[in-house]
Design a protein that fits this description.
heterodimer; A: 14 helices; B: Rossmann fold; 2 domains; four-stranded antiparallel β-sheet; 11 helices; binds adenosine-5'-triphosphate; binds magnesium ion
């Protein structure tokens, strides 16, 4: 295991340059984790909101949704004019506008879950996301009954009873939930792909490159260490390095967020970050199949990390990005990571959907596989030119 | 006869249009210190890289220890040590760690390896520097580290590709002595250089190559006999008549006489007693003369005559 050992000796040597990224990130996480905690509690206190519902479907299902919301919130009548609605939102007369578009019932019965509603909420307020969750819970339970063979009418009454019983339960567990699921965790995960990209490309690439420097590579190739062993040790080294990076950040997160890191949605986010880790590793491999200097590796790491974060909504919410940007972003792995994370956090209009979650994970893994394939082709081409 | 340690037949290596090795042939016997002598770009490194299977080649065959050499001939590679033209060590590892790393690619047993590494450090005299990082070493010490990394596993066949480039005379002598010592311990050595003095000093046999071809091969004496000029006799003399010069020119083995700046130069080809014959003639003509000296040809002369150009530019 000579190469493996040398791998980590080199890593140790490069540690000071890299640890600065970690320290900054750790400091930021601690700051975020301790300051936003108080605000969150306060926000979750207000339960009954002023909501405006615009029902364009006028169907049994849409009316059931309206009735359901009415049972928990104050429904406010407002003229259906975007400018007026905007004003109401702005002055906080209402905190949520829900539009139930035509064809809602059909979509619902067909089992569609995405874009059933359109909604507008007060920007930056977390209460609106709360309504999102109630709505998606309602719709999903309804769909469950319908797919189980209930007629729409029976399904609605069944849902109303289960949810009202359930309501009692959730209002008790609700308090625990605020403790055990904290939104800042998802902010932590939101910036994580940036830091992974930078740390791996500018930290791992120089180590891999060291073994590929022409003279050293020649010397290693002349030795009696079989090719397959050599490659295996480098790959193993890279995997350990990446896993350690991932673990380190999760140890940090456990220190800041405690148990809440292991609440259901946070666990999904954790797995999501692992998928992105694979992407970052494979981009690193791709980068290191070119003979670049350490400085260039740092530059590439930062450029890709920052660029992808800006384009894909790592630094600004995806909902604020223009259509054009999003169109491009769809071809980048971080977009899918962030969409899954936003969905888990309730930062976006996407209702929680496991199918979408696994799709996002799958797309990231495909990106990882593609970069790995590029890396293999690139290094083969390099060897032929040597 | 023993099987040669290395046998190269009709090796052709092209880099796109450029023919780096042109039907190159070579045989090296066990126990030799074999010198590959050639100017920059003549194909020395290319030859070594082909032997080591670092490069693929277009034609010909290469056998090492009597077996065809392939990239996965690990049993053969186990017995080979390589010191590359450019220093190849990890800047992030210390002297000791570097040697241990490269030795460990061959020697898995930890205690044996420790012993080998210690011996290698002693051998190149880097004991005081074992904890140093390569960046802190002078050029000469760095070269010695480079050598230690290549030979720590006690190979039977060692390639040294210009190990003394840019090295101070003290380190250079140390390196050359070391090579002789490795040879005494039983290693066969292939040494490339364009410093002919070094090659003359240590090599038992020499091949002169240029433009990818093996132009001449033999011991240094054999090589020197291949060329016409074998002795230059210089005599400081005030003046000498044209007829005397012509008479000297007619002496046996003399093929040219030059007189300039009060110095007479007599170029002889082979044969013995040339000096005595010249001096006898001068005395018989009652010509008084000053300093007299005789120079034997160098490999540079050999090179000059074979290739028509100086070894070093
Ligand atoms: N990778 C390569 N691609 C193209 N041409 C090359 C390559 N490597 C070497 N050459 C060419 O092949 C020829 C032989 O080079 P080689 O390095 O074997 O010479 P050398 O005798 O070792 O020279 P030096 O004394 O400078 O080390 C040179 O003309 C060189 O330019
Ligand atoms: Mg060379």
């Amino acid at each position: 295991m000579q190469l493996f050992k040398a791998f980590f000796k080199i890593a140790k040597h490069n540690l000071p340059a890299i640890s600065i990224y970690f320290l900054i990130y750790a400091a930021m996480t601690f700051l975020l984790g301790t300051t936003s905690q108080k605000n969150m509690d306060a926000n979750f206190q207000s339960k009954a909101l002023d909501i405006c519902v615009i029902d364009e479907d006028h169907s049994t299902a849409s009316e059931a949704v309206v009735a359901y919301l009415d049972s928990m919130h104050h429904l406010v009548e407002v003229e259906n004019d975007p400018a007026v609605l905007q004003d109401y939102l702005y002055y906080r007369y209402i905190s949520y506008v829900l539009t139930i578009p035509e064809g809602f019932e059909e979509k619902l019965l067909a089992g569609n879950t995405s874009e059933l509603f359109t909604d507008v909420k007060i920007p930056g307020s977390s209460t609106g996301y709360f309504v999102d969750q109630q709505l998606s819970e309602y719709v999903q339970t309804l769909q469950l009954y319908v797919s189980g063979g209930y007629t729409l009418k029976d399904a609605i009454s069944a849902v109303n009873t289960t949810l009202s019983e359930h309501e009692y339960v959730t209002s008790i567990t609700f308090k625990q939930d605020t403790v055990s699921e904290r939104k800042e965790i998802f902010y932590f995960y939101q910036y994580l792909p940036y830091i992974f990209t930078v740390l791996l490309i500018s930290g791992l690439t120089p180590i891999i490159l060291r073994f590929q420097e022409k003279e050293i590579h020649a010397r290693i190739s002349c030795s009696s260490e079989p090719f397959i062993n050599r490659s295996f040790q480098i790959v193993l080294g890279s995997i350990c390095y990446s896993l350690l990076t991932w673990l380190l950040f999760h140890v940090l997160a456990t220190l800041v967020y405690g148990d809440s890191l292991f609440s259901t949605n946070a666990l999904y986010a954790m797995l999501n970050s692992f998928a992105y880790l694979m992407v970052a590793v494979s981009i690193t491999y791709f980068a290191s199949s070119f003979a670049i200097s350490d400085n260039v590796a740092h530059m590439i790491g930062n450029t890709i990390g920052l660029g992808m974060s800006f384009l894909c909504g790592g630094f600004v919410p995806q909902s604020m990005l223009s259509e054009g940007v999003l169109k491009v972003a769809k071809y980048l792995p971080m977009y899918w990571y962030l969409r899954a994370n936003n969905m888990l956090a309730g930062f976006s209009k996407d209702a929680f959907d496991l199918h979408f979650y696994w799709t996002a994970i799958g797309i990231q893994l495909l990106f990882a596989a593609a970069f790995l394939a590029f890396a293999l082709v690139a290094s083969r081409m390099r060897r032929q030119n040597a | 006869m023993n099987t040669p340690v290395i046998k190269i037949e009709n090796l052709v290596k092209r880099y796109h249009e450029l023919v780096a090795l042109d039907h190159f042939n070579l045989e090296i016997e066990e126990g030799e210190i074999f010198g590959l002598l050639g100017p920059n770009g003549s194909g020395k490194t290319t030859t070594i890289n082909c032997i080591l299977s670092l490069l693929s080649y277009d034609k010909g065959s290469i056998q090492v220890f009597g077996k065809e050499m392939h990239p996965d001939s690990y049993d053969i590679k186990r017995q080979i040590g390589v010191v590359m033209q450019n220093v190849a060590v990890f800047d992030e590892l210390t002297v000791y760690e570097n040697i241990d790393y490269f030795c460990g690619l061959y020697v898995k047993d930890k205690t044996l390896r420790k012993q080998y590494v210690e011996e290698a450090i002693d051998f190149v005299g880097l004991n005081e520097f074992r904890k140093f990082y390569p960046k802190k070493l002078s050029g000469g010490l760095l070269r010695r580290l480079n050598i230690a990394c290549g030979i720590a596993h006690k190979p039977k066949l060692i390639f040294l590709d210009e190990p003394t480039v840019a090295v101070d005379p003290q380190s250079r002598n140390k390196i050359l002595e070391g090579i002789l010592e490795l040879n005494r311990q039983g290693a066969t050595i292939i040494y490339t250089s364009h410093y002919m003095e070094e090659v003359e000093q240590i090599c038992t046999r020499i091949a002169i190559m240029d433009k990818g071809k093996n132009l001449a091969i033999g011991t240094k004496e054999e090589l020197k006999q291949m060329i016409k000029k074998s002795e230059i006799i210089s005599v400081d003399i005030l003046d000498i008549a044209e007829e005397d010069i012509n008479a000297i020119r007619k002496l046996p083995h003399v093929y040219d006489v030059i007189f300039a700046n009060h110095q007479l130069q007599v170029l002889c080809s082979g044969g013995k007693h040339n000096l005595i014959r010249v001096l006898d003639y001068l005395q018989s003509r009652d010509l008084s003369f000053g300093r007299v000296y005789s120079e034997l040809p160098t490999l540079n002369d050999v090179f000059l005559e074979i290739t028509g150009k100086e070894l070093r530019d």
